Amino acid sequence: MEVASSASEDQAMVVENYDGEVERVEMPKPTLKVTHEAKLKELLHKINSVEIKLCSDGTKEFIKLLKGDSGGELLHYYVKNSAKCLELPGAWKLRRGKSGMFCILKLISVILSHPDGIYKPNDVERMTISRALDRFARSLIEEQLQDVYKELNSKEAKRQKAALLLLGSIVRRGSGLASEVAKNFDFKLQGFSKMGEYKKKQNERRMKLSLRKAFVGFAVSFLEVGTPGLLRSVIRQKEMYSVVLRGLGNDDDETVLYVLSTLRNRILVEESSVSPSLRSVLFGSVTLEQLVNICGRENGGASAELAYSVLVMVCTDPCNGLMSDLKRRLRGNSKRLVDLMKKLKATEIGYHRDLLLAIVNGRPPIAAAYMVEFPYNLEDCASPTWFSVVTLAANVVSSVGSGHPFGFHDFQSHDPALLDNVDVQSIMKCLYPRSFSRSAINKGLLHSDFLVKHGTLRVLLEALKLLDSFLGVLNQNGKLYVSESFKQDFQNEVRTLLPDPQVLLTLLSSLSNHSKNQQLSLKRTAELEKFPEHSCSSVKKLKTDIENKDADIIIGGLNFDPDVALPEISERIVGMSTDDGLDNEKDATNVMAEIWGLDLHSTSLTTLKDAEIYFHCRLLDALKIYLRIMPTVLEGSFEFFMNLLSSPSASQTDLQRSILSLLVEFVGWSPSSRIPIRTPPLMYKHLLAFMNLLVFSQISDIKDQAYRLAQAAMLSTGAFDRNQHEIASWFLFLPGFDREKSSVQVLGLDVLQSLCHVVNSFLCDAISTTGNNLFKYWEIVKRYTRPLETNKEVKPHFSPLSICVLQKCLRLIDSGSGSFTMHEKSMVSTYVCSTLKYLLQTQVDAVFVSSLICSVLAERLGDCSVIDDSGENICEWRPLNDLLIFSKSISDQKTCGIFSIRNKAMPAGEMIYNQDVDADEAASAAFSFFLKKAPFHVLFPAIMSIHGPSSEPSKIQDLLLAKLSECATDCHPISYLRLVLFWLYQIRSSHRIEQLVNFQQLSEICLVLVDSLLSQLLVLNTDSGSSKNSWALLSSQDIQEVAETIFSHPAMITSFSFPLGCSEDCQRLT
């Protein structure tokens, strides 16, 4: 090369751009210093020398300068002054067939791979340089490839390495040159693939590793720059890539990261267009094993993490050829996958465990194949690895149930052999490893080592969850026809696989034993003795009768030991010494937490007692799923479970929650009507336990479950004819009742708690009496209402509980035994009258209830005027007095009496505060508290009955709307709709007597509330996502009741008959 002559050439070049178009680009003039020019002349002179030492020294120095800080400037200067790099082909020709050829190849590879010589958009100078180097590289492919073959066949590692480095540098220049190399290079060259093999001979190891690295670089360079078409073509060079991937386990981290990151970003993506079959060829069994070894390295760092990431992609994405996907007609290679899964050290290495769980996640067929060949022993509970193995088995089953594991692609409508379906059989095989049989589970659950019990129960619980999920999908999938015969066959099949539930009941015997030996507290005993229908002796007799009748079902096979010891600590934890008991206990809880996958920092498991409670909670969860899968398997055990609820341990929140959840499942609920379907006949005897939890518990889900069970208990009397709205009404006015939180605990008043207990016990006693004497009370209802039944289609829509409660309330107030204080009598009286008034107001036709109440009260009170405000028993009798006046007003259709009840002045003796300077502030604070806490069903009638203020009707309306939005959705909207319509009817009927302005304002408020309630009901009926759960959705019976209310309520007829001077009202109601 003549650098000076090249520099003096015309600086304009005609070049071909990357799109094949010809363009003229002005070459920038060189700006390097004279010293760089001189150095370049010296180096090029050495390189073209016939002396091997000069040539070698020149190439080494040139390479060093190119890799230095000013290497890019040097490269640009050289290419600008020698566009065809003529000195390099000259040196190549000079060394052809002679020693030192590898020096030239190495120098050229450095020049071609230099980052400042690679194409970069929008950089004109670099664009010119890169195109010149591309032309030079292309000439090498076209003219010098045979010399490269000679170097590769030389058997000298340094020459072979130089040739591979050169080829790799050409490929990396872009997809065009990469395609040229792929088209012209002979990949079948003898001995070519052996260059990438790892040699174990110590004296050759270093050089061979260096040669392998160059081989890997050349092979992977195609993947780095290739287009989809090139990738599909070059990936067919199976032998070359097989050598690369099979040796990864012996490569350094840099090589591993380079290869795997390129595969992840260029091949294992949709854009690569490489078919699943070709991807599957890349990842054969040996390659997969290499990746498994890499991700299992101790302190593997980034390479281990990347290997795990690639394995997850390869093994879980059907597009990569191993995992099957019948929907896309991808068969995969299940055998290769299962073989890989069996080789994983999933009990020792975290990445291996996570990979195994990722493979089986939501894939019953592959999990079933693995469980059949489960590579660990679960029969020997004394093995030091048993805990980790049983935890792995449980995690596998749990992972199978994650995601969407049930495709049902083979299910046929009305298929008589549904149980033999491949999906069903896969589920059955996934439940637990083949060696973990039903008898092995029984032994594990009854083992003396409580950690073995925990491990066994974890596997059983995960298996139950999987079955439950499977049946849930079957029942919810409307496209599938699931016959009753299949369900029965499925239950029979499952029954042979699962342990007998009596084994689980045996494990709960310690809790039951506490309950059977426990005596009720003195305070609660005293309260119950006041109500003979719900006394301890009555309950005890009832339980004795039931247990004698169904002893073989309820407690058959149970061993009750009065002295319940703490669980035995595993010998594997304790060892030979007992001096460090606290450490042993901590180790035991750590093992237990690992078995269940718990984070000790976020749980309260600190002692063995906590572990025992946790175990019992999971036992109850397992029994709950037993009931869901096989509803009849625990028939007759309700009393046993109720005993658990009254045990001292049940005061623990988690245990309480689990027991209640089991009881809810035991009762069962119809999803369409929210009616219990398996209510025990005498469940109402246990109502007090549910009501106390409902009123006093601080946990919202416990309160919710207690509420549902209390409803079921009341329905078990047979008195309500599935009238859930009336049942809900009996809870609304219980002292401290709140579906979200306990008002009693918030206030923190012991006196109020005592009064709540009295009211709860009174109601339970009345319900028990009604249930025990149902026909008697129905006859009383008929006797009182028969004169009103002029139309055969009009029937009473209330239960006989109203009569029983009212009669008991009168007897209680009349009682002079001293068993009840004035406060207790007043509280019961207030509760009874508030509830009955609400029932009156929420009837479509209130005449029946009002007449019945009047008849019962009149027998005792006579004319209401005989009770004046000066009597000694004013507190307990006033509510009854008001109720009688209210009922008579409805019966006689005298609405003026309703509006006048609240307007009487309170006597001075009943004033809470004396007249002083703080009276106004105290009254204001009390009223504010009332407005904040009072629910809609309390506040709305209060406002209506005193006419309401005419000065601020909009604020009253906003307050009532806000209260409506706060109310629970369960049952209340329909009752609230009737409540508002009741008062609208009273207003419409009274408009001729009172001032028209006030009634117009109240009527307008009522119409706005009706509109809001109807909107709520419409949302509940059409939008399942509007409520927290399906329990709040309207049933078909609810819809029927709404329609009956709208078309039959007197308020609707009155609105059209007496428009109150406002035609808009009629329009809105319509």
Automatic annotation (TrEMBL):
<dbReference type="GO" id="GO:0000466">
    <property type="term" value="P:maturation of 5.8S rRNA from tricistronic rRNA transcript (SSU-rRNA, 5.8S rRNA, LSU-rRNA)"/>
</dbReference>
<dbReference type="InterPro" id="IPR021714">
    <property type="entry name" value="URB1_N"/>
</dbReference>
<dbReference type="InterPro" id="IPR016024">
    <property type="entry name" value="ARM-type_fold"/>
</dbReference>
<dbReference type="Pfam" id="PF11707">
    <property type="entry name" value="Npa1"/>
</dbReference>
<dbReference type="InterPro" id="IPR039844">
    <property type="entry name" value="URB1"/>
</dbReference>
<dbReference type="GO" id="GO:0005730">
    <property type="term" value="C:nucleolus"/>
</dbReference>
<protein>
    <recommendedName>
        <fullName>URB1 N-terminal domain-containing protein</fullName>
    </recommendedName>
</protein>
<dbReference type="GO" id="GO:0000463">
    <property type="term" value="P:maturation of LSU-rRNA from tricistronic rRNA transcript (SSU-rRNA, 5.8S rRNA, LSU-rRNA)"/>
</dbReference>
<feature type="domain" description="URB1 N-terminal">
    <location>
        <begin position="118"/>
        <end position="388"/>
    </location>
</feature>
